[in-house]
Write a structure and sequence with these properties.
Length: 176
């Protein structure tokens, strides 16, 4: 069984990272769907799915006949992280996370999904540790956390993650 990301999420991640790294500035047009199809050797529906996800998260704006334009990050936007290391191995989390992403997109919030981040491990404990640190570093406003199960010392491990996540709360409540 392969644990690699679906093609549309790979494309989504590449474009989101390019925007984050300022390869595309607010107002810039992304390459056309046709160009992205050739670049990623994939179909138009796959590229469209990646672009729709970017649009839902208010990273880009799509307009028929015009193209896909990079949006300026909102000054009051709220960012939350998904700390669900077993996301793709459990059926229940996929629709929940999709609904969360859709709902927060309507509210000008942004969800940082594990698939956005290039993480060099599939071990759920290492993944949880890396994601926790990334969310702290990125100063997300909150985290949707699904505790790990069926691991040695699961209660101690999950409490350790929660202690680290409290740093986000402390740092975000401090005036800047």
């Amino acid at each position: 069984m392969s644990h690699s990301k679906p093609k549309y999420l790979q494309i989504y991640s590449e474009i989101a990272n390019a925007i984050k790294n300022q390869e595309y500035a607010p107002g810039d047009l992304l390459p056309t769907e046709e160009v992205l199809c050739k670049k990623h050797a994939t179909s138009r529906p796959t590229v469209a799915k990646a672009l729709r996800l970017l649009a839902k998260e208010k990273i880009v704006k799509r307009r028929a006949g015009f193209g896909t334009q990079v949006l300026a990050p909102g000054k009051s936007s709220i960012t939350a992280g998904l700390l669900i290391p077993n996301l793709h191995s459990t059926e229940i989390f996929t629709p929940i996370c999709a609904s969360l992403t859709e709902a927060v997109g309507m509210e000008a919030m942004r969800i940082v999904r594990p698939s956005e981040l290039e993480i060099p491990t599939e071990d759920p404990c290492q993944l949880a540790e890396i994601l926790t640190q990334r969310f702290i570093d990125e100063k997300v406003h909150g985290v949707f956390f699904s505790p790990l199960e069926h691991i040695p010392n699961q209660e101690r491990f999950n409490r350790g993650i929660l202690r680290k996540l409290r740093l986000i709360v402390r740092e975000s409540s401090t005036p800047v």
